[in-house]
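Before relying on records like the one below, remember that each one covers exactly one chain. Contacts with other chains, cofactors or solvent are not represented anywhere in the record.
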Amino acid sequence: MQLPLNVILYQLSANSLYESQNINLTTDYDGVKFFDINFTLEDSKRYLYLLSEEMLRTYSDQITNSDTFLCVCQNRETHLNEFNHELSLVLLYSNDSFPTVFNKVLTIFHDFEVWDTNFHLALLKDRPLKELLELTNVYIVHPMVILDRNFSLLGYVKTPGTDDPIMDDILDAGYVTPDTMTRLRQDGLISTSEQAANPLINYYCLTTHECYYSMMYRFTANGHTVGYALVFRCSIHPKTNYLDLMNIISENLMLYFQQERFKSRSSSEIYESLFTEILDHPDTPSKQYEDQISFIPGLSMEGYFRLARVSYENISEMPYSFVSWNLRNAAPGWKPFVHQNALYVLRFTSDSDKLGSFLSPDQETLFRNCMGGITYTCGISNTFFSLMELPTAVLQCNEAIRLGRLKDEKPREFYQFKDVFVPYILQELKRSVPSPMLTSPCYEVLKRYDRKNHTDLCEIFMHYLENGRSIGQTSNAIFLHRNTVQNKVKKAVSVMGNECDGSQAMVAFVLAYAGDHEL
């Protein structure tokens, strides 16, 4: 693992005293070597060569290569002007002996290599961010919070004696509230602009006499922001010593965010992570999600929503990200997102269309075009009125597909939950209610009559109830003459001695019929 010289000096001591010439302290080195005037290393790697003050005085004028040298000086009266001015040289003033410093530098390279290896292994094992931060904690000096792109708290590191009230507000809430966001923006601690410096370093004050530097890292994947790290209470400018160390840490943290984005198959839209957060943590107080939605233009917690799950086979040929891009650009009111390896589309509906179809005929055509001609199936939820109801809508979508396929012999593109509501309720009732409790006297009487006389009055009366007790609608739905339907309905009422016009009797008849016919 390569380390910048600045990080090596900082790890030796946060207040290392040194002089340097002809050196960029941010230059990376692959390791450290003991200086030997008679040894020439043919290697493409860049090494830092350590030598004592005595060795430097002996060989200063004989060294002609362009390597970088770190000289350990115990005498602070020694200065660069005493040596070859063309050398790339650092004089490190230390009370430790040369062998001690050499071993410390070796240990620094070794420990960083171990940390980097363990970090990558933890990523491969899909370990949580908390564990990654615990691995990294030894190198973090200043308090830090890690946020997702919706500013929810993912992890943090606190250091003894360095409490920060802004950070404490984030930890207490579990996310960045609108009030805290206002403070962060006013003090310049955060910027959501893709054009802002990364890292963004700023100077802020907690009180008139208590001021610090802050750092904001913006993590990206495929050019889009996926998370943030905020570092607080740097007493001196980070470029002096801490910046290069944090750059190394942030590079590994970036891998975590990129891996999370790949696993979720999400695209670039900020609303996606909020939707998945609601689905993964439905018990989180709605106030948090309402606050976070306020950061997303054009989105509100309340409204008229419909959800569809889009299912198809050849995902490798039509990745979810590509389909999402098509749908999002085809209609502003469609909000595609991926959750648990399934593609969903949230649709905003108008007040006049709140209980209408998921898509109009023209929109269905547009939807098919976006799917690129592949065969797909959509399970569609009922209308819902708050994004907090997304978990219920997802369940409705899944059940619409499952029960719809059982009900229909020929596959369809769109299955609506409202069409399988009775089978779903019956399915759930059977889990806890004994079957004899789900009978209807009216249905039993009519069923016995049908069995004895080889008639179909139960089926006709069920269609009659499904079509709002309209003879005309029932006739059209089952392709039977109006008079025939009317006569059969009258006969059914006569046999039952009951019109089933009461809500209790009607629900009992429907459930009993559905249970018998596995609708």
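The chain has a mean pLDDT of 90.
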